Structure formats: structure tokens, C-alpha cells
């Protein structure tokens, strides 16, 4: 139980006294433990105890008053303050970039004034003068409309007790209050004067039987040590275990990760709450999946960027999000292939309506979205909420799948803590626009913290304030450093610093912070039988010492670990680097990929297997302008059509510069007119037209320097047999020289190295494969046609010099594999290499063995093969050696 049976709180509850607690957690825990206390007393029936958090007690007393005042909720208070501040800014002609943040600070300053009994003050600057105006306007508006906010509710209750309009209990127990504000202190005096005896009851003090003080290297090590300690305590079934993290809001993500990982390593899952431990601080409701989906949809404008489109297509929280995943994936792939960066809602509807096998649920969603965006009326908030609920229901939110317990809690929080408060804004705002509705829905969703109901209370990770009045079986206090105990100073900008210091407002006075820190540490050191206090010696890359109030403790260095806890489980390594071999039936049909399959097999077998056998590639990423792939494709098509018109070297020479420019311009226009472009791409077509014309003309100047030739084929599809493989190929161009020999060309817009053709490993096999298997007659040369502005050139190898301008024979080429002396030997090397590579494909070789680092530089599979992790492990092994 929370307190031992001899603690006086139980006798007070048995006597029916009203207990006022500092927070809801203490009230809930006390009520639950009172049932256990009554069971120990062998009682079968008992009255529900009168236990109330202090704020709920004020609301309960207000309900007993016959008052015409309307008690405002927090969202309504913010709405009134927001309007007051915006009207004042409009009158003064001043603009603020962050009105919501200003409203939060102003509401906080108003709360401080009420809690610390500040009626007026002499302002020190324009901000404080403005706050005084705002506060006066706010109070005047509340009096005029007969509104009452919860900040001023205690004063009203106090006045009602003082006037005799409210009869209170004969006695009250106040529990868990470390430090009473002046307002609460005055209210206690008023209650005493009215005949209600007030007793401030101290929490139970537990003398620890086990106490440790630990200094960790950094915050991560400190949290890991706390998580392991908590796991061990739970495995030993010591009872309720608490880990107190003073800066839980800042460290929440890291705490969740470390504790989840550490608890999952337990060998006693029945004793350790791996996924259900209780963390007192939740995450913004807006971060929950279904709510994030609704907010994203509501905030969409008429024009959607690609990230928004992709999110809607993948989102499972709308109708069809799960059942239509294949159609939606294909639709997204098409959008990526078309390089779509942005689409209007109407254009998206057009694409969906004309898409074969379009996802019907997505089509319905976009139709409803278009209708919703057409709403411009200004109506009551409650009507807008009803309209919003109808819209979400029509699009199938929150999805087709049945909700689990967490999902139901998120949905309930959305309805109760977001939509209901928005609907109640009608009390302070008669009408609102659709934009204002969405703004309020988003604002509340971001401000409300969602925490699913804890299914297991054996482990509680809590902040400092949540520990008030509580005791545990084991407690670890993290962050006991000099920056937390005592805390730093933090002043509200709307109140004078001198006033905050004089009133001893929170975080305004070092002496008050020091006293409060000593009080907290004293209470926490007597809150559990097993106690550990820790701090991080380095915090956010800065050295840190322990709290000066804990310097007398026997600090021990945290034991370092390698972070591995195998729990006796042996790991088995499996070398799985060979895929199933290709069957004879598969070899009868051409394999997809053409010579690209051989190229990637030579570069990295795993890459070839995933791309061509499994058929998996990274999706295209839309980017501004034309992609390099699109620009290369346009160049290929223009050159194809130009050479279909020219036909030969003589045909090229027949055109003078003017005629050649006209021919190129005609072909460029024809290619561009026959290509589908995204909207943002069309804006660049004039520039692309100029680029293509000048680049093709520059390349043809290089072609003019060649010896006479005829173009035998341009982009003609061929089926080639390479070893055991049958491949579909499309050589860019095959020319015939005047003496009847063939030259195989392949256009490239990037930088090319001849060594990829003649080196130890054939990294560019397409040209040799065309030369070996796709050409009738002798081959005099193979070459890349490097078509780049200012760097247009042939780069290849030939049987003898000057078959092509700048192309050398085997004997004179650099980087030729050792042992190859002439063209015939190079041909044999190509044949052998191509057959071996083809056989490796057939055998299923899929090892992660890139031929060099350049292969991995732009590879899309590093997350799948995890070669970076492999390199790290190898380096780690070398370091150990």
C-alpha cells in the first residue's frame, strides 16, 4: 500500500474526513489503496472515501453554489485571451509572429498573479504594460459575459465560504503539498475561520534499507543503469518500482527507447512489464497515427506536394488504406516515374479517374476533400464539429481495421479533449470560419498530451512533481546534478523581475529554489525501502557535478558494460549468399534486364540478384526540373531520330551548319512534343530545347571528323544468347566502315573510363556483348560516345589506331589487363568473362561483394545488404586484434 496501516491518513478516511491531494495521481492511488486497507481490516463494505485533487475540489464546491456564472474550460480561456490580445494588437498596429506562444505566456502570468495574490504592479517595459491592458480587458469581458475561469475559481470559493454562502466540511486533510502558494495558504485560513479544521499531513517516511549513490559517465549510461536496476528489481518481485527523471520531458524519447529495449531482455516476461510500464508524461495527441492523419488531411491546401500525396496513399487511417495498398503503391510509383512534385486536387482527381484499376477508396477520399475545401461558411463551432465528424466518417476515418485498446483511447481523446472543447468555444465565439476551426483543432491536438492507460503499475517512470505524497518499494532518482537541485532561474517576461523575486514565484529566487530542492531531496530519500540516487558527469557535452546538497553521499562510479545481455541464448550464424539456381524452363525465356544484369553481376552479385531476380528497386524520388535519367533519355531519342534522317557519314556532310541546325531543331521539337512532362518540368522545356540542340550539334561536329561510315542500326531490339542466358538487348548504334567492318557505339552523358572495358574486370559488358553476339561480321572497334558539353569524345578500344577519332588500339591503350597483347586476345577475354558472369547468374551467386567502393556510392540497396554495418564490424574486429 501507499502508506503503512498505522499511518494517520487511514483513520481520517475511516472517519469520513475529506482529503485534498496535490494532484490526481495521488488521489487515485490513495483511493485504490484504501480498498486494500479496508480488506486488511476484514471489512466487506465501506463508504467511498472523499478524496479529491485540489482543483477538482474547487469545481465540486462551485457546483454546490447557485451561481449564474459560466465556468470556462482551458480552451475557452485561451480563446478569450487570444481575442483580447489580437484586438489590442490591431488597435496598436503591432504584429506578433507567435501569437499562440504569447497567449500561453500571458495566461501563465495571469495564473501567477492569482496564485501569488498580485493585483497590480508598476510595469518595467512595454511588454508588461501590454499585459496589464490585456488582463484588464480580459477581466472586463469576463464580468460582462458572466464568465469565470478556473484560475479565479479558488478566490470565488474563498469568498463564498467567507460570506457564509458555502458550508464546508468540519475538517479537511491536505496531503502531498510540498509548498503552498499564498492563495492556497489564505484559503486554508479562511476555511479555518469558517470552522473547518485543516491538517496538512506529511507523507509517510520510509527509512531505506538499501541505499546507493551512482555517478554515470553521461545521461545515456545513467538511464541504462536505471533500466537494468529496474529490470532486476522487477525480476526479484520487490513490489512497486519507480524511476524518477526530473527532466523527463526532454529525455522522454531516449527513456522510452532504453527502457523498452532493456525490459525486453528479461528472462521472466511474466514479472517484467515489457510494453505496459507506466510513464507519467505522454506524447502530443497530434503525434498519434490516426490523429496525425486527420490533421494532415484537414490542413491540405488546393495544391498538394508529393510528400503529402505519398502520405495519403500510404496512410492506413482512411477507407481503403489497407485493402487497396497494391493499387495505391502502383499509383504512387507512376507519380514518381512521372516526376510529379505537386498536384492540385482537381488534377489528382483527373489522374485517379483515368488510372487503370484506380484505388476507389482514394478516389472517394479526394472527391470528399474537394467538397470539404469548398466550404467557406462562417457557422457556430458546434455545427462545424458536427460537419467535421461527418466528413471524417464519409472518408472512412479512422480506417478499415478494428481499433485496439490504444486506438480506442486515442479516438476517445480526440472526441473528448479536442472536438468537444472546440464545440464549446461557442460560449465565447458565436461563429468561426473553416480555417479557424482547423487552427483550433490542430492547436489543441498539439497541446494535449496523450498517455494510454497503464495496464501495469509495477514500474512507474515519473517526473518530480508526480512523486508528491507517494511511496514505493524501490526508487531510483536520476539527474541529481547541480543543474536540477537546485533548478535554474526562469522569469516570466510579462511580470517585473523584482515582483517575481519578492513574491517568491517559481524559479525566480535562488534561495527559494535551494530550499525547495532540499525539501524535495529530503522527501525522496525517504520514499522507498530500496533507494538509488544518480547523476551524469557529462550532460549535453558539458561536465556536471552532483547536487551540492548530496555531496556527502558515498558516490560510486557506474559500472561500464558492453551493452550486451544474452540471457544464455546462443546465436547461430548462417551464410546465405546463394540464391536458387535458374531452372531450364527459366533459361528458355529471355531474362529481364538485358546487359544490365551482367553489368551488375560483375559489379556486385547481390545487387544484380535483388534488382533483376527479385525485381526490387528503390522508388524514384521526384525532384525539381528534369531528372538526369529523363534528360539522358531525351538525348538518346533525339540522336536516334537525327541519325535515322542522316543515315551515314556522307549524309551528315551533305548538311551545312544552317541546315543541320534546322534538322536538329525539328527532331528536338518532335521528341519533346511526344513526351509527357509534369507541370514543373514543362516550365523548363525552352531551356532543355536549347541544351539538346547545342549538345547534339556539338556531338555531330565530332562525328564529322570520322572516316566514312554507314549507320547499320539505331536502337534496334535484339535477342542474344550469352552463355546459358538469353537476353533482350537494344544497342544504341552499329556503324559499318568503308571496308565493311563494324563499330558498336553506346551513348553516355556521364564521365567514362576506357579501363572499364579493358581492365581486369569487365565493368561495362554491354558493348563487348553486342560485339560478340549482336553483330554480323568483323568488329573493328567498340566505343562509348561521351556526349557532354565541352567533353564530347569517343572513348573505347579498337583493333588498330584511328578507327575512331581518339580511340587507341589494344596495344596502345592504358589499363589493359595483364597478359592481353592484341585485339584477338581481348575478344577472347570478353567472351570468357561474359560467359563466367552469365554462369554466375544461373548458379544464383548473390554475395555482397562489390568490386570497388564506387559501386556502393549511389547504390539503392545499402539498407538491405547492410554493407556499412559489415564494414563497421570488420573494423571492430581489426581493432580488437
Can you tell me about this structure?
- There is one protein chain.
- The protein is α/β, with parallel strands linked by helices and 881 residues long.
- The protein folds into 5 domains: 8-68 and 155-201, 3-Layer(aba) Sandwich (Rossmann fold), CATH 3.40.50.300; 73-149; 210-282 and 454-557, Rossmann fold (3-Layer(aba) Sandwich), CATH 3.40.50.300; 297-447, no CATH class; 584-862, Lambda Exonuclease, Chain A.
- The strands form 7 sheets. Strands 7, 8, 9, 14, 15, 16, 17 and 18 form an 8-stranded mixed β-sheet that branches. It has a 6-stranded mixed β-sheet with strand order 19-22-23-24-25-26, sandwiched between helices. The chain has a 4-stranded parallel β-sheet with strand order 2-1-5-6, with helices on both faces.
- Helix 8 links the parallel strand 5 and strand 6 (197-201).
- Helix 3 (54-64) packs across helix 7.
- It is elongated and about 120 Å long.
- The model is unreliable at 875-881 (pLDDT under 50).
- This is PD-(D/E)XK endonuclease-like domain-containing protein.
